[in-house]
Amino acid sequence: MKSIFLVACICFLFACQEKQITNPEDYNTYLEYQNTSNKDLTKQHLTFWNTRIKQDSMQIIALGKSAQEYTKLFETTGTIESLTKAEIALEKAADKAHIGKDVYLRALAKNRISQHKFKEAAKALQEAQFFSPNKTETHAMQFDVAMELGNYKAAETYLYLITDFSDFNYLIRLAKWKDYKGDLDGAIHNMERAKRIAEYSNNETLKSWVYTNLADYYGHAGRIKDAYKHYLKSLAIDPNDAYAKKGIAWITYSHEKNPTEALRILDTIQKQHQSPDYFLLKAEIAEYQNDVIAKQEHINAYLEAIQNPAYGDMYNTHTAEILLSEKEAFDTALAIAQKEIENRPTPQSYDLLAYVYQQKGEYKKALTIAETHVVNKTYEPLAQYHLAKIYKSNGLYDRVTPIKKELLDASYELGPVTTNAIKNL
């Protein structure tokens, strides 16, 4: 009996060591990092360039520089107004420019993608294609927009037009295409090839970008140690990388089941960077902790934050899900889901619409939408979870079982709260 007890203790300790991946000593320095000097410098640059812009001015270079600084400020602080001000400057520059017009149009499209103005981004790129001496850059962004709009045939065409296995920009888009097709190994393979190119060129911006995106893919594949390592690699380049910090917070919460540490990390991020979705993650963690009051406080903070009209449609999906799960505001959620389909008729948007009808109790309608627009068209775990609930509500229990098994394998990506719900399917 003593031997059995000893073996059990050893196995338990080993399991704990396997689960524990993060170490606060690895990232505390980045949490304490103050980016005041960077923000001050950006604001100084903004003042410099903005003083050179007058109403109806032809100062195209100043407009472009001003847009760059506003974009930096958004990336550093998350202040949405900085992104909208950058858009205004880019619109003026693109309108007035005769030389390099395509450059300003692509920058404008990138800005609009960040704001989820995908149709407007597509128009800017269509115009850029007309003026562009280098259509490869434009086609690459047209691929991005086509994917966001659910125009997958067009996306495949653009991907073919930019084919170059030695090009970073092609490989990261090929990775995205592989992921869309459900080939996660292929996505990781091509992102790793892009990483080698970024490291060989020693381009800090490309390295930071590819490290965080590769970390996400590793997380989806269950390679949590690799994900953690790459978030740290990005922070070593940019100590202010809020996305990488949030990635580490997710590991501490979802994998290590350490909500206290996850909240500590999120608290430090919010001191430097604004984004409504931090409140949503905090609300989920509070639910995991059975803290009803804190959960409601975070949800209310989120709902208050998105009242800012500058956010536009950026948080439609999140808002609809909150309205469904917490407020039972079915008609409002339905209106948002229909607007999302108008904005971007992707399988994910139709999944949201189907889920709204599911929550409303219109199970047959939910099933029809899901089978027409979602089944075999997206492999996103959240969409699969919604699909399993729709099947169960329609009495199709034989279809629930295989989805449930796959979802439990994706427990890290879905998080503990959703995983517990899946177990009850």
In short:
The protein is an all-alpha fold.
Description of the molecule:
- Among the domains are: 257-309, no CATH class; 313-425, Tetratricopeptide repeat domain (Serine Threonine Protein Phosphatase 5, Tetratricopeptide repeat, Alpha Horseshoe).
- It is globular.
- By secondary structure, the chain is mainly α.
- The protein has 25 helices and no strands.
How is the secondary structure organized here?
Layout: H1 2-19, H2 24-31, H3 36-50, H4 60-77, H5 80-96, H6 101-114, H7 118-131, H8 135-149, H9 152-161, H10 168-180, H11 184-201, H12 204-220, H13 224-237, H14 242-255, H15 259-272, H16 277-288, H17 292-305, H18 316-327, H19 330-343, H20 347-360, H21 363-373, H22 381-393, H23 397-409, H24 411-414, H25 416-423
Helix pairs in contact: 3-4, 4-5, 5-6, 6-7, 6-8, 7-8, 8-9, 10-11, 11-12, 12-13, 13-14, 14-15, 15-16, 16-17, 18-19, 18-20, 19-20, 20-21, 20-22, 21-22, 22-23
Tags for this entry?
79% helix; globular; mainly alpha; 425 residues; Serine Threonine Protein Phosphatase 5, Tetratricopeptide repeat; single chain
